[in-house]
Design brief:
With 342 residues, this protein is of the alpha/beta class. Helix content is 47%, strand content 18%. It is globular, with a radius of gyration of 22 Å. The model has no long low-confidence stretch (mean pLDDT 92).
């Protein structure tokens, strides 16, 4: 496989070991097809970066720090990589620090390492916790631009917040479910990954407030602590269903793990009247096409990625103007209007 880059650089870009990259480059046996594709994409991206550096002379390294399920981190990572390819007037290299398990101490440790190591900008989705907030403030104090993605960190000195209008999303979900399920009373389940994520907390709070007005005889049951993972949500849903004494009518899922939610409900023999979820990731697209989801509340992650990168370029003095925090409006996607690009 022809290339002009160091094996170490390809490995970092592809998020593979140097040994695996070496096997791919020399066409040795025992390498998976996904690994080969990752190396091909990494070489193409490094080629693009090298050409941009030749044209502009500016090379920025942005660090993406996220604690979220793979289905969501992949969505955000791909959006940032796509938008980085269109960034001007600098070439952008993205370094990813991704974890599925919610752990404030680990997130703070990553942010502290970046402060000592150096970064041209940090994009962060992490739990709203004192250790994380302190680490973000230390980054800002060190002169490193910080943009929060998807969920904000209240009271920090972060420069910009980029993400969904969470309050509007929760109220939109309440409107949809109260309209679709209008002829009976019962329980609606509200699974969140962790209340420490302010975005999900805001969605859930807005939903409960709105549904209590629109359907005062409904009981909203919040399920917390799954980290948004299918493997952990099943037992939590089982326990929640066992504790209610009214029929489960619907689910509003601000936090994902929707396959796991449906697995638990199927086991209990519960047939939902409606299920509203968030984000057009691969899992939700499959469930939407299969009729297991009624609607997905969607916002264009590419727009968020574009705004985040623009904010860093402005903070670095490469684009005019001051960056501003903007909330992305929510859209409603049903099985009948899935965007053609998906």
């Amino acid at each position: 496989m022809p290339h002009r880059h160091r094996v170490r650089d390809i490995a970092v870009q592809a998020q593979l070991s140097e040994a695996t990259v070496d096997r791919v480059l020399h066409d040795r046996r025992g390498v998976s097809a996904p690994a080969r594709r990752a190396v091909e994409r990494a070489i193409a991206e490094l080629d693009r970066q090298a050409e941009q550096v030749r044209l502009t002379g500016r090379h920025l390294v942005l660090d993406l720090v996220m604690q979220a399920p793979v289905r969501f981190t992949a969505l955000v990572h791909d959006a940032l990589e796509a938008e980085a390819g269109n960034a001007r007037p600098a070439v952008i290299r993205l370094r990813s620090h991704l974890e599925e398990t919610v752990d404030p101490a680990r997130a703070a440790a990553v942010l502290d390492r970046l402060r000592h190591r150096g970064s041209d900008g940090v994009l962060v989705k992490a739990p709203d916790h004192p250790e994380v907030r302190a680490a973000v403030d230390a980054l800002v104090e060190a002169g490193i631009p910080v943009v929060t993605l998807a969920t904000d960190l209240r009271g920090t000195r972060r420069h910009v917040a980029v993400g969904l209008d969470h309050d509007s999303a929760g109220r939109t979900a309440a409107y949809l479910l109260s309209t679709i399920v209008s002829d009976t009373d019962g329980v609606v389940l509200v699974p969140v990954s962790r209340a420490m994520f302010t975005g999900e907390e805001t969605r859930a709070t807005a939903f409960v407030e709105a549904i209590s007005t629109q359907r005062p005889r409904w009981q909203a049951v919040t399920i917390d602590g799954s980290d948004g993972l299918d493997a952990t949500i099943v037992d939590l849903v089982r326990a929640a269903v066992a504790d209610v004494d009214a029929p489960v009518l619907a689910v509003y899922s601000p936090g994902g793990a929707n396959r796991g939610v449906l697995t638990a409900l199927d086991e209990a023999g519960i047939s939902l009247r409606a299920f509203v979820a968030h984000d057009l990731d691969s899992d939700n697209l499959d469930l939407l096409r299969a009729g297991r989801l009624t609607a997905v509340l969607h916002h264009d992650v590419r727009v968020d990625a574009r705004r985040a990168i623009k904010a860093v370029l402005q903070l670095q003095g490469l684009l005019p103007g001051a960056p501003a925090s903007l909330a992305t409006p929510v859209g409603v996607v049903t099985p009948h209007n899935i965007p053609s690009r998906l």
